[in-house]
Amino acid sequence: MQTQTHSTPTSIKLPVELRDRLQNLAKVRKRTPHSLMLQALETYVTREEQRESLRQEARAAHDEFMLTGLHVTAEEADAWLAELEAGNDVEPPKCHV
């Protein structure tokens, strides 16, 4: 987790059961509930940013396909990936319409 140079307070209302679980985990881990929440939020936000980036890339690729029709078949992609997995440095298949 990155150290923040500037922090701003915020509040969150936790259900009592979740708050108790968090406090118990913090005690067992010898950490503060605050540090566990920061770690959880950092992990979640990073994962969701990566997921959103992948979604945007997929959307752009789909839009490009819809404009050009260029593609490779699943069989072509599978064969290429199998070669890479086998350790062979091969060029990707050529796109076609």
Automatic annotation (TrEMBL):
GO terms (BP aspect): regulation of DNA-templated transcription
Recorded superkingdom: Bacteria
Higher taxonomy: Bacteria, Pseudomonadati, Thermodesulfobacteriota, Desulfovibrionia, Desulfovibrionales
Protein name: Ribbon-helix-helix protein, CopG family
Organism field: Solidesulfovibrio aerotolerans
Signal peptide positions (record): none
CDD domains assigned: RHH_CopAso-like
Annotated coiled-coil segments of the chain: none
